[in-house]
Design goal:
The complex is a heterotrimer of chains A (about 130), B (about 290) and C (about 130).
Chain A: E1 8-11, H1 14-30, H2 35-54, E2 59-67, E3 72-80, H3 88-97, H4 101-112, E4 115-121, E5 125-133
Antiparallel strand pairs in A: 1-2, 2-3, 3-5, 4-5
Helix pairs in contact in A: 1-2, 2-4, 3-4
Chain B: H1 2-30, H2 41-61, H3 74-90, H4 94-116, H5 120-163, E1 168-171, E2 174-180, H6 185-202, E3 206-213, H7 219-235, E4 238-242, H8 246-254, E5 263-265, H9 268-279
Parallel strand pairs in B: 2-3, 3-4, 4-5
Antiparallel strand pairs in B: 1-2
Helix pairs in contact in B: 1-2, 1-4, 2-3, 3-5, 4-5, 6-7
Chain C: E1 6-9, E2 12-16, H1 23-40, E3 44-48, H2 57-72, E4 76-80, H3 84-93, E5 101-103, H4 106-116
Helix pairs in contact in C: 1-2
Classes of the chains: A alpha+beta (about 130), B alpha/beta (about 290), C alpha/beta (about 130).
Chain lengths: ~130, ~290, ~130
């Protein structure tokens, strides 16, 4: 369970989804993201936060500012101890066709991010990491 | 044993800070790398003083070997980053900026030799760790310098792209974007954003994207164009792509790009005619006088 | 309970979304609008999203749902004022808004509603060019 410090938030309700977006917005602005880049990462965060609430049974989101010598970025991790995703490939693929439910959220978040990592085990939980660079 | 030596370095700096600062500044002023056309003595003294103070503080706060990456050094790094960025913007070269840090070595070594001359072992160890720290800080300065240069270039590129992406209003409600030159991914992004912004500003319900001046269109560019059209449509504006030469038409079909329901015309003129039609407008010739 | 206000202008319902909506608020809006359309026999629904800096799949679905329900009730839905950054992101997201007409601003939106309506809407001023 990730520690709840200044850059972590509990994501349990639909209001939490809004405050999650607001927190990441601050980080995106600090990293100097253009308006379009801000919108992209915030939309991805919105999708993933919602998935955490609805499908993950609630979880946490942790934001990190990435400050490398050559580039700046924002990394967001969503973690829950929910039912997990049985077929990740399927879940990602759905995003392209149905436009409903879990599929679009995952596939969409992936398309809106520069880096996307997902780890999930049925019965254990899910951990999704997205990164967007300036 | 090692803590005793650490405090020696701190001692030396604490005792002789003013003298070290003075000889260091003299060295910089005398060195060929100082750009007197870009910076005056007062600024140099002030920069040097700030850095030395932060450096002294960091050395004193570091328990064992001074590690320039640790939190105790963050203030020093911040001061250096600021100085490096400023120098980069002013036009100093990376070497000139790095010399700022490197030249401090000599002054420090001088004082260390005075204090530890009788103990060659201690002297050698101090020299070693001071060298390591200053070398790393020198590299850090160079990296920040580079990054600042890149940021400036990026900004200039973007400004140039925006300037070379003129969106003209052909009539109330119709804008045209004549694209000229090769379209790469970065440029197409800027183009897309500029066009959409102008559409909002002019309340244009029709936008003509003319690619007469674009020599080649590959799959990536075609996809970007289609995304632009899709985005404009989502906002409530229809796009017409004009200036499609036979070669481009062939490439597009060959690549299997699906133009869906995007209107395409071979000339800007015919695109404009369609636009007028859509707006319910007609151009009428005035009857000749007499 | 907070609600997004729905205004009536002639035969049209107008909604202006000014806040960062959370999902429950969006669902409430969807319900409220559908009820209002039925009650008022509105011919058009205009949703102003010019203040929305973000439209995700949930909001997108809400807009599409409103449009389909309005259609069943014989009303046209027009979404106006989508910000460029939002449009670009929606395209990247792969979200189209089926059944949702869009326009750049309220004025154009009303033109569209008038054009689609069977009966006359609002006042009897003809559209000026």
């Amino acid at each position: 369970m990730s520690p709840l410090n200044g850059n972590s938030r509990l994501v349990r309700s639909s209001e939490d989804v809004v405050s999650a977006r607001q927190l990441v917005r601050e980080y995106a602005i600090s990293a100097g993201f253009s308006l379009v880049d801000q919108t992209k990462i915030l939309t991805a965060v919105s999708e993933l936060a919602r998935n955490t609430v609805i499908y993950g049974g609630g979880g946490t989101m942790t934001v990190e500012a990435l400050n490398q010598s050559m580039r700046r970025g924002v990394r967001v991790v969503f973690e829950d101890h929910g039912p997990g995703i049985a077929d990740i490939g399927e879940a990602l693929r759905d995003g392209f066709t149905t436009g409903n439910g879990l599929g679009l959220g995952l596939g969409g978040a992936k398309r809106l991010s520069n880096e996307f990592d997902i780890q999930s085990e049925p019965g254990k939980g899910t951990r999704i990491t997205i990164t967007r660079w300036k | 044993m090692s803590t005793k030596k650490r405090s020696r370095l701190t001692e030396v700096i604490a005792k002789h800070e003013a003298a070290i600062l003075s000889t260091w500044v003299e060295r910089q002023l005398a060195a060929g790398s100082l750009r007197r056309d870009l910076m005056n003595d007062v600024e140099l003294r002030e920069d040097s003083r700030r850095f030395l103070t932060a450096f002294a503080g960091a050395i004193a706060a570091s328990p064992d070997a001074p590690d320039s990456g640790s939190p105790a050094w963050s203030e020093t790094r911040d001061v250096l980053a600021e100085i490096s960025r400023s120098r980069s913007r002013q036009g100093f070269s990376p070497t000139e900026t790095a010399m700022f840090v490197m030249s401090l070595k000599e002054s420090l070594f001088e004082k260390l030799r005075e204090a530890l001359g009788s103990d060659p072992q201690a002297f050698a160890e101090e020299i070693w760790s001071v060298s390591l720290v200053l070398d790393r800080l020198g590299l850090f300065v160079t990296e920040v310098h580079q990054k600042t240069r890149e940021e400036i270039i990026d900004r200039q590129q973007r400004e140039m792209l925006e300037l070379s992406t003129p969106v003209v209003q052909l009539w109330e409600g119709v804008v045209a974007l004549p694209l000229i030159g090769t379209l790469d991914s970065a440029r197409t992004q800027v183009v897309m954003e500029t066009l959409l912004q102008r559409i909002v500003e002019t309340s244009a319900s029709l936008a003509i994207i003319d690619i007469t001046g674009v020599p080649t269109v590959d799959t990536l560019v075609a996809q970007h164009l289609l995304k632009t059209v899709a985005a404009a449509r989502l906002m409530g504006t229809e796009c017409i792509i004009s200036g499609i030469r036979p070669q481009i038409a062939q490439t597009v079909v060959h690549l299997g790009v699906d133009l869906q329901d995007v209107i395409t015309k071979s000339t800007l003129e015919s695109a404009f005619a369609i636009a007028l039609q859509r707006l319910g407008l007609t151009i009428v010739r005035r009857s000749a006088a007499g | 309970m907070e609600r997004i206000p729905i205004l009536k202008l002639g035969d049209c319902l107008i909604v202006s979304i000014q806040v960062d909506m959370h999902d429950r608020l969006a669902m409430t809006l969807q319900e409220d609008l559908t009820n209002r359309i039925a009650d008022s026999r509105a011919k058009g629904v205009l949703i102003d999203i010019s203040a929305l800096a973000l439209v995700d799949s949930f909001i997108g679905r809400m807009l599409a749902n409103i449009a389909s329900m309005a259609k069943v009730l014989d009303a046209t839905t027009v979404v106006v004022g989508m910000q460029p950054a939002v449009a670009i992101t929606l395209v990247e997201l792969g979200l189209s808004l089926p059944g949702v007409k869009t326009a750049l601003n309220v004025e154009r939106g009303m033109d569209l509603i008038r054009a689609s309506a069977q009966a006359s809407v609002v006042t009897d001023e003809p559209a000026q060019r």
